[in-house]
DNA sequence: GCGACAG
DNA sequence: ATCTTGTCGC
């Protein structure tokens, strides 16, 4: 795997190179295990704490989880989130006994300036199908979104579809879904909804967040 | 130059 | 992300 001690400019150049390796179509078999990934911070940001929650699919029962702590060594810079969070996430993934069939990541995938958000980066490194599930927008524009659960509209940038704005729960702010690696946008939306019950966030993300934060 | 800006 | 209680609305 590549080096993580990069300057912001080197990181951006690496993203442009790696973005060429992102596979935007379904390349996986029926999933039985889905995982949520999230990161939290301790010591006022000095320590990065990553958590991964593995759930059985489609029952969504929690099977196992893993937590890892690492010294924070990259600042938060819009567009470079993966360089700050992935090192700790990779450590947490090592602690799982079962390999996830799909990763639901807390952040963007293709809906990124250089089409290489955290979900693409993590999916590529682990060679695992991944989905970007962000709570807010990084880039892109979209039309009005109906208020009912299940409704979605495309998220576009420079005339290209880079993701979808999905209403995962009626009358609540939408989620920003995008391709991470080895999955189509249609499937990304499908699996995100399949992992969602009565709340805005998928159960995978909810569990991961509980383990990564409070 | 000004405003936007995943977590 | 994080610092933090009550409060408004379906």
Structure report:
It is a single chain. The chain is α+β, with helices and mostly antiparallel strands and about 210 residues long. The chain has a single domain (about 10-210), classed as archaeoglobus fulgidus dsm 4304 superfamily (archaeoglobus fulgidus dsm 4304 fold), CATH 3.30.2170.10. Helix content is about 25%, strand content about 30%. The chain has 5 helices and 8 strands, in the order αβββαβαββββαα. The chain has helices at about 10-20, 80-95, 120-125, 185-195, 205-210, and strands spanning about 35-40, 45-55, 60-70, 100-105, 130-135, 150-155, 160-165, 175-180. It has an 8-stranded mixed sheet with strand order 3-2-1-4-5-8-7-6, sandwiched between helices. The chain binds 2 DNA strands through β1 and α2.
Largest sheet: 8 strands, mixed
Shape: globular
Number of domains: 1
CATH C-level = Alpha Beta
Low-confidence stretches: none
Strand content: 25-35%
Helix- and strand-based class?
alpha+beta
Helix/strand order, N-terminal first: HEEEHEHEEEEHH
Question: What is the averaged pLDDT score?
Answer: 97
CATH superfamily: archaeoglobus fulgidus dsm 4304 superfamily
How is the CATH topology named?
archaeoglobus fulgidus dsm 4304 fold
Distance between the termini: 32 Å
Radius of gyration: 16 Å
| Physical arrangement of strands within the biggest beta sheet | 3-2-1-4-5-8-7-6
Number of E-state strands: 8
**Range of helix content:** 25-40%
Number of helices: 5
Summary, kept brief:
This protein has 214 residues and is an alpha+beta fold. 25% of the residues lie in helices and 28% in strands. It has five helices and eight strands; from the N terminus they run H-E-E-E-H-E-H-E-E-E-E-H-H.
């Amino acid at each position: 795997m590549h080096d993580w001690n990069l300057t912001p400019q080197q990181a951006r150049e690496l993203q442009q190179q790696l973005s060429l390796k992102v596979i935007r179509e379904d390349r996986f078999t029926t999933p039985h295990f889905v995982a949520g990934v999230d990161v939290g911070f301790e010591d006022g940001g000095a320590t990065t704490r990553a958590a991964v929650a593995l759930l059985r699919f489609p029952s969504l029962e929690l099977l196992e989880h893993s937590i890892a702590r690492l010294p924070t060594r990259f600042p938060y810079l819009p567009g470079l989130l993966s360089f700050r969070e992935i090192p700790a996430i990779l450590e947490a993934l090592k602690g799982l006994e079962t390999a996830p069939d799909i990763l639901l990541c807390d952040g963007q995938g293709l809906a990124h300036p250089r089409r290489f958000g955290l979900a693409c980066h993590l999916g590529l490194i682990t060679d695992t199908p991944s989905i970007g599930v962000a709570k807010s927008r990084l880039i892109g524009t979209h039309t009005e979104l109906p208020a009912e659960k299940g409704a979605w509209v495309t998220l576009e940038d420079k005339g290209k579809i880079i993701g979808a704005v999905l209403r995962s729960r009626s009358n609540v702010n939408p989620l920003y879904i995008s391709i991470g690696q080895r999955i189509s946008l249609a499937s990304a939306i499908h699996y995100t909804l399949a992992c969602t019950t009565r709340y805005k966030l998928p159960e995978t993300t909810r569990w991961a967040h509980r383990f990564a934060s409070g």
